[in-house]
Amino acid sequence: MQESADTGRMVRIAVDAMGGDHAPAETVKGAIQAARELGVEIILVGPQAEMDREFRKHDTVGLPVRIVNASEFIVDGEHPVLAVMRKPDSSVAVATKLVKSGDADAMVSAGSTGACMVCAMQYLGMLPGIDRPMAGGPFLQLSPETSVFDMGANVYCQPEQVVNFAVAGCVFTKSFLGIENPTVGLLNVGSEAGKGNQLAKEAYPLLEKSGLNFIGNVEGMDIPKGKANVIVCDGFVGNILLKFCEGLGESVRDWLLEELSGSLEQEKLEAATDKLWKLMSPGAVLGGGPLWGVDGLVMVCHGASLASQIAYTIKEAKSCAEAGFIDLLRTDLVKAQSLISA
């Protein structure tokens, strides 16, 4: 049974069981799967009656799973800030408060990213020099050692924030991919210095001063080639890029299935096209990742996550907790910020 390295106890994960398109069935199923396979303690957060009903569908004998009641939950279409204000006992708020109180080491949600961000900022606060959370991580299975930051949490950015994105990406790459000196590229419309919009032009010299292994500008075509380990851009561009690739992977798979139907054995064709889709589509196999910059572990999954993706995200949360991820990020942020302000 895996235990937390510094406390001698199991890592505890609070799961927003009401968050996501397939909640609570898939979130509960994935959480129980994680408890069974990963040796983590699971705290399911949601209305007691619904949690009890889902709980009874699974064999949980001997598993470290418990329920914490939350009388409310946030639904699609609600404004994140207003929803968190009006529903202080929502499942996402209660799960985040468990991290704040120290009763959980991390929380996982497939619900509204905006609501997760608001709860994280309100109840946990931000690391030094960070105004709001960042989103990012490995982008394509075609280039598994390449991460993109930011993927949508920060649409309007200042140049200093781009440096923070790069620091977060480097901490992830060093901690979880084992790459000691990750390369950093600035996503741009050309490889030459001086290219791009005002944000890119102002971020470039700061990245040069940051102490990171900055290799200059990279272009969109460089992402699947893995030209840099960490690629940074504002969240507006990053989110469009993310969703374009999601749609492209699905469209290419469907086109190949139709185009090659009858020319190959159907089972082999479906296996090959499904593999291609997983290589091209962000998050097709994996789950979610942390909201970077928060002073606590908040893991956000895609809204359409199924049980396997919930379980994978819980695995990532466990790894982050065991690695002392928050302290590593805090240290590297302070170092980079002191260099660019010198």
How would you describe the overall organization of this protein?
This protein has 342 residues and is α/β, with parallel strands linked by helices. It has helices at residues 25-38, 48-55, 80-86, 91-101, 113-124, 159-176, 198-209, 235-259, 266-280, 307-323, 325-340, and strands at residues 12-16, 41-46, 65-69, 106-109, 136-140, 143-149, 183-187, 213-218, 230-232, 289-290, 297-300. Helix content is 45%, strand content 15%. The strands form two sheets. The protein has a six-stranded mixed sheet with strand order 3-2-1-4-11-10, with helices on both faces. Strands 5-6-9-7-8 form a five-stranded mixed sheet, sandwiched between helices. Helix 8 runs antiparallel to helix 9 (266-280). The longest helix has 25 residues, at 235-259. The radius of gyration is 20 Å and the shape is globular.
Write the layout of secondary structure elements.
Layout (H helix, E strand, L loop, with lengths): L11 E5 L8 H14 L2 E6 L1 H8 L9 E5 L10 H7 L4 H11 L4 E4 L3 H12 L11 E5 L2 E7 L9 H18 L6 E5 L10 H12 L3 E6 L11 E3 L2 H25 L6 H15 L8 E2 L6 E4 L6 H17 L1 H16 L2
Parallel strand pairs: 1-2, 1-4, 2-3, 4-11, 6-9, 7-8, 7-9
Antiparallel strand pairs: 5-6, 10-11
Structural descriptors:
single chain, 342 residues, alpha/beta, five-stranded mixed beta sheet, 11 helices, 11 strands, 45% helix, 15% strand, globular
Biggest sheet details: 6 strands, mixed
Low-confidence sequence ranges: 1-5
CA-atom Rg in angstroms: 20 Å
Can you tell me the overall shape? globular
Helix-and-strand structural type: alpha/beta
Secondary-structure element sequence? EHEHEHHEHEEHEHEEHHEEHH
Helix content: 40-55%
Give the strand content: 15-25%
The count of DSSP E runs of length 2 or more, i.e. the number of strands, is 11
Number of continuous helical runs? 11
Average residue pLDDT? 90
How far apart, in Å, are the first and last alpha carbons?
47 Å
Strand order of the largest sheet: 3-2-1-4-11-10
